């Protein structure tokens, strides 16, 4: 896709870079936490996600998101991978984290489910690719 430039020759270029999003595959008491955002349809669950803030280290940011959305402290943070998400013009930086504490959902989330890792099934978009990669590594 071509970059948008000033037609008057002013030199301005709109780069339209994708937004960096953090995703956390949270392991909690041996299960994986999937959450439903209040804006999502009933039955739609996913990983914990949020935007990387300006100047923020991604490892610090993913721990912040887990704390803000689930009320858990994140430890043992391991990068799963980086994934393009063209549909939302984002790039997803996904981590596996171990969550400690008691789950307390913030106002963005309606509910959560704890899924045994062997019952976790990846989906074919967005953070689902990180789930697939994590499951594949876990199997080896």
From TrEMBL:
Residues in the signal sequence: none
Keyword Hydrolase: yes
Cofactor: Mg(2+)
Domain of life of the source: Bacteria
GO MF annotation: an example: hydrolase activity
Nudix hydrolase domain mapped to chain residues: 16-137
Alphabetized InterPro entries for the sequence: NUDIX_hydrolase-like_dom_sf, NUDIX_hydrolase_CS, NUDIX_hydrolase_dom
Pfam families per record: NUDIX
Alphabetical UniProt keywords: Hydrolase
Keyword Hydrolase carried by entry: yes
Protein name per the record: NADH pyrophosphatase
């Amino acid at each position: 896709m071509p970059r948008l430039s000033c037609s008057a020759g002013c030199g301005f270029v709109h780069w339209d870079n994708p937004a960096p999003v953090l995703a956390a595959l949270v392991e909690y008491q041996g299960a994986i936490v999937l959450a439903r955002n209040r804006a999502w349809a009933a039955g739609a669950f996913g990983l914990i996600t949020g935007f990387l803030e300006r100047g923020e280290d991604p490892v610090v940011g993913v721990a912040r998101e887990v704390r803000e959305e689930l009320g858990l402290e994140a430890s043992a943070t391991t990068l799963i991978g980086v994934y393009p998400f063209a549909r939302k013009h984002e790039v997803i930086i996904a981590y596996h984290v171990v969550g400690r504490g008691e789950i307390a959902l913030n106002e963005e989330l309606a509910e959560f489910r704890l899924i045994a890792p062997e019952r976790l099934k990846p989906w074919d978009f967005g953070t689902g690719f990180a789930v697939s990669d994590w499951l594949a590594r876990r199997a080896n």
